[in-house]
Design brief:
The chain has 332 residues and is of the alpha/beta class. It has helices at residues 7-37, 40-51, 63-77, 87-90, 117-125, 140-144, 166-185, 190-196, 200-205, 209-212, 226-236, 256-261, 272-275, 289-299, 323-328, and strands spanning 56-60, 82-84, 103-107, 130-134, 147-150, 219-221, 240-244, 250-255, 277-278, 282-283, 303-309, 315-322. It has two domains: 7-188, Glucose-6-phosphate isomerase like protein, domain 1 (Rossmann fold, 3-Layer(aba) Sandwich), CATH 3.40.50.10490; 209-328, Roll (CBS-domain), CATH 3.10.580. Helix content is 45%, strand content 17%. Helix 3 (63-77) packs parallel to helix 7 (166-185).
Length: 332
Amino acid sequence: MTSLPTASERDTAVKTIATAQRVLRTEAKSLNAMADSIGDAFLQATGALASITGRVVVTGMGKSGHIARKIAATMASTGTPAHFVHPAEASHGDLGMITRGDALLALSNSGNTAELADVIAYAARLSIPIIAITARAPSTLADAATVTLLLPPVEEACPMGLAPTTSTTATMAMGDALAVALLERRNFSAEQFRSLHPGGALGRRLLLVSDIMHAEPPLVAMDTIMADALVAMTAKSFGCVGVVDSDGTLAGIVTDGDLRRHMTADLLSRTAGAIMTAGPRTIRPRALAAEALATMNANHITSLFVVAPGVDGAMQTVGIVHIHDCLRAGLT
């Protein structure tokens, strides 16, 4: 039998939940204040980062260094070439990882991190724009920066006010804001995003219909008799056949359900155009495969014909995708 929690255990549970809520609310308050402070400096920073021909070099020491690595990774995965340089290692040869045409994104809550001195001086010598994210101005970093993104005064969530908590959350969020603003400024597409994330669940989510479709769909003409249409339907094993008009445009579809609804003695002698369901649902080859799966699930169908404009502008049937193709690709 499970014993009931003691008074001490209940008291500990209440305090633990209260602590978590206090931390999250403190950090949320910081983010709201930072959102309200966004203005000209942010525009200048994104403009400077968008105009470079090289990479965004992100640097920071300690906890700021961990955040800097994450910001660099986020930028690199969203179309802004970026990498992290450790400020202490930079003083021992890694300054060579910073070149003309780059921009420096330097993180320091205090703005006076000693290890950043050599990186800042090197960037200044090469006339590399320096974007600072700091909570202190004036400070060494803010004074040297081309643009300073000043974090609003925040209360650390640590009860002693010492452990970087709220400040690191704010710094990371500012990095995310820069990355997404640059993404949208460059019109970075889902297709480009997919090319940088080919593996794992994210890669599967970004598969295109063209990646999984069958390029030779079962098609017959409007005047094809059903005896021949059934042969085409059976040969491809999709449980359907597309019916096209004289210019190749998909006019309808014949499915197992259509066969059952028209099951009469003269079925095999009738034409596909007489049996078909007109105006079938279709999808574009550049649509996400996940969209195809969602469409099939929502409409209780198992196949979609894939259509695209031909040379004359008319929509042509270029493939077919089956629900099993989506499931084999790992989509759910």
